[in-house]
């Protein structure tokens, strides 16, 4: 049963964090120092599953290409995916694009300012909506991202896995009860920073932590016990065959359906892992190929499963119907390499292995 022992000094929890942040917090990230909700939103979405260091170059590139919400709404999904390619979790890019169109169509291009309204936008959950509302609009809203969860779970010794409803509710209640009356933007940033910089997952710096004097986990000598890990479950493995059809310096790719993994990106044609490659190329892709060569398998991890890719190199002898089939196209290896066509990371890796892209 999760429980939260509230220390006497809880009232100055926010005060200590704010004072710490003024001195030690991060102030120079490229999305800081603005109240413009567009970059705040963009950075919050990019940071949802990705570390700051990885996000920064993508953030800069994205903002240079789509400097405001109207520009993003005008772009095609393909353009957006091209700029996003490599950052992973592509549903974030699709949701950004769709949300930009909603903001333009339904709000006249102005961001809604409340957490409730922001939360309805595609790809914006409760915590992201709260972060935008707090940082861009000064709303008194509580955030609870992965870093904040960890800080609260340790500081208040909240047991149990944070993915369960009961623990989640406890953490949200704590997060809300701690909100200061003023300086909500600084407090929000401070809480996220303390989780990212001090109360880190593997090596918390309790000696430098402004919350140490009231931290229950530290007092009990049980910092490592919080937050409780996800109950073990094995991630299923799915296998798929991928066909690398090459012809005169070009590769055949097909556009994936708009939803699902790598939605909207271009990838290799697939077949079941034990399918007949040459027959598939002839019957489905209109290509006669030399004996297909099995390449070293490749593993790609997704949140809920692992994809076991069995690639086959197929040198095309003859294209029976060169006519572009819907959703399929030949691209030069250079187009793939220079990002002119949005592809998932394994496609680039495979082509590089072949010395092509
Ligand atoms: S004292 Fe240690 S465990 Fe407690 S909040 Fe600070 S860094 Fe985290």
Please summarize what this structure is.
The chain is an alpha+beta fold and 357 residues long.
Account of the protein in words:
Strand 7 and strand 8 (306-319) form a beta hairpin. The protein has helices at 13-24, 37-46, 52-65, 69-74, 77-84, 91-107, 115-119, 126-137, 146-155, 165-177, 184-198, 216-219, 277-285, 333-337, 345-353, and strands spanning 237-247, 250-255, 266-267, 270-271, 287-289, 293-294, 298-301, 306-319, 328-332. Helix 9 crosses helix 11 (184-198). The chain is built from 15 helices and nine strands. 42% of the residues lie in helices and 14% in strands. With 357 residues, the chain is of the alpha+beta class. Residues 151, 154-155, 198-199, 204-206, 209, 211-212, 215, 217-218, 223 line the site of iron/sulfur cluster.
The number of helical elements comes to 15
Q: How are helices and strands ordered from N to C?
A: HHHHHHHHHHHHEEEEHEEEEEHH
List unreliable stretches of 5+ residues: 1-10
Percent in strands:
5-15%
Mean pLDDT: 92
Question: From the structure provided, what is the oligomeric state, counting identical versus distinct chains?
Answer: single chain
Shape: elongated
């Amino acid at each position: 049963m999760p429980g939260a022992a509230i220390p006497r000094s809880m009232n100055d929890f926010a005060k200590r964090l704010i004072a710490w942040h003024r001195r030690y917090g991060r102030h120079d990230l490229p999305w800081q120092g603005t109240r413009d909700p567009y970059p705040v939103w963009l950075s919050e979405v990019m940071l949802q599953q990705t570390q700051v260091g990885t996000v920064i170059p993508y953030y800069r590139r994205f903002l240079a290409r789509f400097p405001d919400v109207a520009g993003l709404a005008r772009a095609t999904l393909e353009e957006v995916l091209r700029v996003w390619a490599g950052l992973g979790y592509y549903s974030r890019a699709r949701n950004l694009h769709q949300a930009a169109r909603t903001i333009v169509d339904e709000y006249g291009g102005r961001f809604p300012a409340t957490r409730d309204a922001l939360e309805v936008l595609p790809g914006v959950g409760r915590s992201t909506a709260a972060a935008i509302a707090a940082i861009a609009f000064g709303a008194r809203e509580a955030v609870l991202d992965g870093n904040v969860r960890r800080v609260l779970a340790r500081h208040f010794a909240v047991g149990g896995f944070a993915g369960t409803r009961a623990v989640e509710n406890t953490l949200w209640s704590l997060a809300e009860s701690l909100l200061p009356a003023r300086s909500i933007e600084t407090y929000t940033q401070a809480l996220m920073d303390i989780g990212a910089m001090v109360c880190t997952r593997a090596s918390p710096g309790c000696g430098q932590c402004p919350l140490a004097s009231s931290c229950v986990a530290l007092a009990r000598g049980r910092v490592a016990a919080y937050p409780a890990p996800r109950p073990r479950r094995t991630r299923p493995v799915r296998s798929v065959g991928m066909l690398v059809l090459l012809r005169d310096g070009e590769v055949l790719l097909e556009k994936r359906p708009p939803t699902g993994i790598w939605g909207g990106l271009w990838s290799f044609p697939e077949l079941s892992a034990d399918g007949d490659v040459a027959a598939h190329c002839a019957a489905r892709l209109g290509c006669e190929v030399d004996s297909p060569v099995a390449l070293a398998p490749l593993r790609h991890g997704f949140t809920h499963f692992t994809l076991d890719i069995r690639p086959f190199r197929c040198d095309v002898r003859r294209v029976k119907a060169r006519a572009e089939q819907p959703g399929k196209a030949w691209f030069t290896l250079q187009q793939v390499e220079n990002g002119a066509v949005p592809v998932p990371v394994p496609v680039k890796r495979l082509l590089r292995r072949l010395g092509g892209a």
